[in-house]
Amino acid sequence: MRAAVHTAVNEPLRLEDIEHAAPAEDEVTIDVASCGACHSDLHVRKGELPFPTPAVLGHEVAGTVGEVGRAVSGLSPGDRVVTSFIMPCGRCARCAAGEEEICLDFFAYNRAKGQLYDGRSRLSRPGGEPVWMYSMGGLAQRTVTPATSVYRVPDGVELSDVAAVGCSTMTAYGALRHAADVRVGDTVAVIAAGGVGSALIQLARVFGAGEIIAVDIGEDKLEAARQLGATSTVNSSETDAPAAIRELTGGRGVDVAFEALGSRATFEVARDSVVEGGQVVVVGIAPPETVGELNLATIARRKLRVKGSYGAKPRRDMPVLLDLVARGLLRPQDAVSRHYPLDEAEEAFNALDRGEIRGRAVIDVA
């Protein structure tokens, strides 16, 4: 099969013919239709997140079930499915505690080594050299993944519309529902209106947020944010963003500020934009050396709450998100601004790196 292979830091993705193994008893093989281009993949390509090479990136996958392992139930060949980028092992202490979004085996095996949970990749070069997998390695014509990350797409929903649900939308849902517990009427700010930021804006509207303020440095992204449901926008390259947010909220600040990029600058905007007793939720994945400052006296006096959020709980939350899509309450396709074929995957990530992608770019594999 054809795959876009990450061979070395800052080297172009290379189209190769590679091989895939049959699924293990608790795994599923998916014929990939489309895969989102996510910023965390870009971090890996640039060496900002350590990961072994050669590897196949891509973790926002929509496609059709090809094979199922003998222990898999509820899925059959031909089913139209979408994947979650978090692949819960279902056995570790965190999964048992209901915190599968921080599954210990997911981080120990997949994020650290590019392996599935028997310590092996399912991808290889023709000579047998392993090709490591970032989540399920979706920038390929076929992928193998644990069944815990695979969910049926409702009838009437296009596969190309829902690829990003498994990462950017699921990440946003986890931040809104589980980290911040946003309620009807809450005021929120979304700092950085990229892929995850766009999903935060869409879902904040679904959650009934009273005011949704989008902050970015690009007017095109701010215009897109307004179309997705932002009630106000702030261009942080032209104005003091925290001051502008306070002005928009009558001098008080927002109840929740979501940092959706993973940088010191965006964290500081979020930190300085919340009301007394408000929440700062860090959602963006930052390079490991990134540091943000907090004044301990200010935290105590203002009773600020700073939280991290890695994603939603796949087995609980993916069915909820797909139901919202089926009922037309959530339209992830509205955040997709560009489509690329597999042989142009490199250009998709270059455009993402240049800041040219509004919302999400999708790579059409099939």
TrEMBL record:
<dbReference type="InterPro" id="IPR013154">
    <property type="entry name" value="ADH-like_N"/>
</dbReference>
<protein>
    <submittedName>
        <fullName>Zn-dependent alcohol dehydrogenase</fullName>
    </submittedName>
</protein>
<dbReference type="InterPro" id="IPR011032">
    <property type="entry name" value="GroES-like_sf"/>
</dbReference>
<dbReference type="InterPro" id="IPR020843">
    <property type="entry name" value="ER"/>
</dbReference>
<dbReference type="InterPro" id="IPR002328">
    <property type="entry name" value="ADH_Zn_CS"/>
</dbReference>
<dbReference type="GO" id="GO:0016491">
    <property type="term" value="F:oxidoreductase activity"/>
</dbReference>
<keyword id="KW-0560">Oxidoreductase</keyword>
<dbReference type="Pfam" id="PF00107">
    <property type="entry name" value="ADH_zinc_N"/>
</dbReference>
<keyword id="KW-0862">Zinc</keyword>
<dbReference type="InterPro" id="IPR013149">
    <property type="entry name" value="ADH-like_C"/>
</dbReference>
<keyword id="KW-0479">Metal-binding</keyword>
<feature type="domain" description="Enoyl reductase (ER)">
    <location>
        <begin position="8"/>
        <end position="363"/>
    </location>
</feature>
<dbReference type="Pfam" id="PF08240">
    <property type="entry name" value="ADH_N"/>
</dbReference>
<comment type="similarity">
    <text>Belongs to the zinc-containing alcohol dehydrogenase family.</text>
</comment>
<dbReference type="InterPro" id="IPR036291">
    <property type="entry name" value="NAD(P)-bd_dom_sf"/>
</dbReference>
<dbReference type="GO" id="GO:0008270">
    <property type="term" value="F:zinc ion binding"/>
</dbReference>
